[in-house]
């Protein structure tokens, strides 16, 4: 049975997609069967692997029961790496999910809306060693779905002046959902410090995060390197993790090793 890793932070631009893509590539290169599921209407992870992601069936059609989940798993140019793409219409699905959640809550019924993603992935879990979920910022209903589905939640946080605020909000929400769910819902959750530099401010900020969130911060931090990040956005076959001449590439490699150790994969 596969391990499900979800990247969440309700603050935008914190490195969820960069993390998802690089750990997916690193784990696939290690010989593991990896599925990257894009749960973001922006389709940033999808566009890296499928040029025509807006035209083909994906997560939207699968969740709407128009197609089977098996039929929206696409191979990529990378050996062992598969993708389920997203598109703008995912916004309607998120709104439907939120509406269903609040309707079931107000009627005092069992809230099955938080198990949609877990149930959707069930038929394909046996085919993969690792399933990675890349997410939209915000949208509490999808965060809840990830918490119910995942074995590990990674919360990437950028080193900037608002870093603590965003991560604090997401961590509080994760803890609240876990505490209110039954005992089967117990994913690990770990903060990943992203966009570090060698300045004093950056070092102080890292220290502050490690103190405030003691025990749940990953050892690995990811360096801020604009040029490799831009290349990854513009060139389909460039992945930061592959470029071991860069600090950010080496950091992502360490991250993959730390995740494998932490999750026994
Ligand atoms: N370590 C890094 N060094 C330099 N730039 C980075 C790094 N990580 C991410 N970036 C850049 O920062 C921007 C935001 O990163 P990314 O898209 O991964 O964030 P996100 O959390 O997925 O955003 P969103 O919330 O919009 O989905 C992107 O332009 C990306 O290329
Ligand atoms: Mg993203």
Mean pLDDT: 95
* Number of self-contained structural domains: 1
Residue ranges: pLDDT <50 for 5 or more in a row?
none
Order of helices and strands: EHEHHEEHHEHEHEHEHH
- Alpha carbon gyration radius: 18 Å
Question: In CATH's first tier, which class applies?
Answer: Alpha Beta
Strand content: 15-25%
What is the 3D shape? Answer: globular
Number of strands: 8
User: Largest sheet at a glance?
Assistant: 8 strands, mixed
> Can you tell me the CATH architecture?
3-Layer(aba) Sandwich
Could you say which small molecules are bound to this protein? adenosine-5'-triphosphate, magnesium ion
Number of helical runs? 10
- Helix and strand content put the structural class at alpha/beta
Question: What's the N-to-C terminus distance?
Answer: 11 Å
CATH-defined fold name: Rossmann fold
If strands are numbered along the chain, what order do they take across the biggest sheet?
3-4-2-5-1-6-7-8
What do we call the CATH homologous superfamily? P-loop containing nucleotide triphosphate hydrolases
Q: Helix fraction?
A: 40-55%
